[in-house]
Amino acid sequence: MTVTVVSGPFRRAVALAAAALLLTGCGLSEELERETNPEGRPPSSGAMPPAPATDTPAARLPDEPDDTPRCPKSGVSMSPGMVTAAMGLRAMSVTMTNCGDGAREVDGYPDIRVRGLDRELFDVTVLKGTEPVTTMDDPGPSRVVLGPGESAYTSLVWRYSAVDAATRRGSGVYVEIGPAKGAPRQTIEPDGGLDIGETGMLGTTAWQKSPSDDR
Predict the structure, then answer these.
(1) Where are the domains of the chain?
(2) Contacts of 29 by beta carbon, 8 Å cutoff, 6+ apart
(3) Distance CA 195, CA 164 (A)
(4) Mean per-residue pLDDT for 103-125?
(5) Structure pTM?
(6) For the structural domain made of 82-209, what CATH number should be given?
């Protein structure tokens, strides 16, 4: 390792030079600029000058999804309940809610069609009543008036029939249901489908007012 010894006078000269640099500040940079560019030309570094700032409109955020339920033109909405099972017997309720502004009236049984995963119609016999599928009590047709926000329900009953687990053949994936024959139907998808087979029977009960709305 080489050690260089600097004499005292040289150290003082260096210190004086450093002090001069500190005192001149920007004056030194201007002097260097004059030496390297005596004609005062703009620097030719190749970099483009920054573009002037412009006011740009804020980016529009995508529309947020609207989770508000839509009311069909018929003024009623259909929603499936849970499927219950016991000893091969299946049952499920379907609730019809008046989502419109005026009163709605039903009197009788729902109008139902069943479709498979391929949307093809099942050859299912839809009954007005629950027999011979089961002896579940059916109140029979009665006039039910629903005010805005009120609901009625029907019960669907059927017997289990073998379903292909791979293709879901024999499972009623889609149920089209209307308040009465000739009324617009809505498509609902029961959880797990209706394992009813393609030549089964589907019992129904007449519409009756939901207990929470029956005053």
Answers:
(1) 82-209
(2) none
(3) 10
(4) 95
(5) 0.66
(6) 2.60.40
